């Protein structure tokens, strides 16, 4: 820096000095202003260092546009449902079998012990402030203790608390994938995976589930989709939207594919342990010998409190494949937004330890009974093919569209079902799986019976048998 003269414009006091300023004098002098040197402007910071700046240009008109991420964000369910013309029959009360929220009808309250845990947390006034971004240590330890087992041990450091399972999935995808990568997603599958991935510039590859095999994975198709940019495989078990539960043997086959191609697994296990009696549902981590797994879960479904927004990621990495980098990445991502509600964290240990087993059993018993009722009623309806679930809260029903020429597709079918019968089932096109619809089985039994009766009446009205010529061609 030379010692030529500059015009020093002081910030904040309006003083202008044309005195010769020596760089040594400026340095450390506390000057904070502008220095004009010829046609250039140099800023002077608080310690006297000079640095150049460019003259600011002014926009001529307003131009505020949404980001590429927001433009790329699309929830397939909202995209389809918002476009449907839903005008219920005014002579029939609406029965919504479309929303995966077990609290809607009020017939499935959470247990009193869960409510008491929340009341105690509030009354203690210990949880009104910010929690650590990954959650309170005590709460993380409670989750670790609840899910830890010999086959897949957990410590508090292996648990990250999140704002619902949705944020857990978001963090898991974000830490494992870069723009231009691709992930493997079940089809039919939960629409959030695609919503999140595409918004981040990540390609989604859909691997098929097989309805004729109770929605098992088409393993050959799964493996055919893997390439050098595949960064993650998502496995949903038990399944939304199918209600299926993979056997131990089938999970081991999925893990074998992941191991062969060195792919980590994001295991969406929000419906963990919500399986019907007699069905075995091991977590993926208990079966993995080498594949690292991020297991996402939460309170929402098993404890029937989705609005409490309490989820978690369980980090299973027995061979240290993730090392410190993935863990550090997850911690950094949690620091973007402090997620999990501190009051629910305060109640978490009590919720996990004090909820009676009878509460879980009663919930599962109801879901199984309603599923069997729906399956039995719709199995005898010409043109429909329900697939009996083994867990979760859903049942998928196939539509033989050839027998329903009045409708273009499953969206049109379910739309007209609302118009005529005031029963709303979610078209499975929302799950990338056309010509099916999803039934939520959490409604009261009397409403399930009524809804099945209306669906039967609707199908009987619109069903058309195949013509003789069509039968001849099929033979």
TrEMBL record:
The modification N6-(pyridoxal phosphate)lysine is found at residue 301. Pathway: Amino-acid degradation; L-phenylalanine degradation; acetoacetate and fumarate from L-phenylalanine: step 2/6. The keyword Ion transport does not apply. PROSITE patterns: AA_TRANSFER_CLASS_1. One of its GO terms (molecular function) is pyridoxal phosphate binding. CDD domains: AAT_like. Its EC number is 2.6.1.5. Keywords: Aminotransferase, Phenylalanine catabolism, Pyridoxal phosphate, Transferase, Tyrosine catabolism. Pfam families: Aminotran_1_2. Its cofactor is pyridoxal 5'-phosphate. The keyword Ribonucleoprotein does not apply. Residues 93-455 form the Aminotransferase class I/classII large domain. It catalyses: L-tyrosine + 2-oxoglutarate = 3-(4-hydroxyphenyl)pyruvate + L-glutamate. One of its GO terms (biological process) is L-phenylalanine catabolic process. InterPro entries: Aminotransferase_I/II_large, NHTrfase_class1_PyrdxlP-BS, PyrdxlP-dep_Trfase, PyrdxlP-dep_Trfase_major, PyrdxlP-dep_Trfase_small, TyrNic_aminoTrfase, Tyrosine_aminoTrfase. Transaminase involved in tyrosine breakdown. Converts tyrosine to p-hydroxyphenylpyruvate. Homodimer. NCBIfam families: tyr_amTase_E, tyr_nico_aTase. Belongs to the class-I pyridoxal-phosphate-dependent aminotransferase family. This is Tyrosine aminotransferase. It comes from Labrus bergylta.
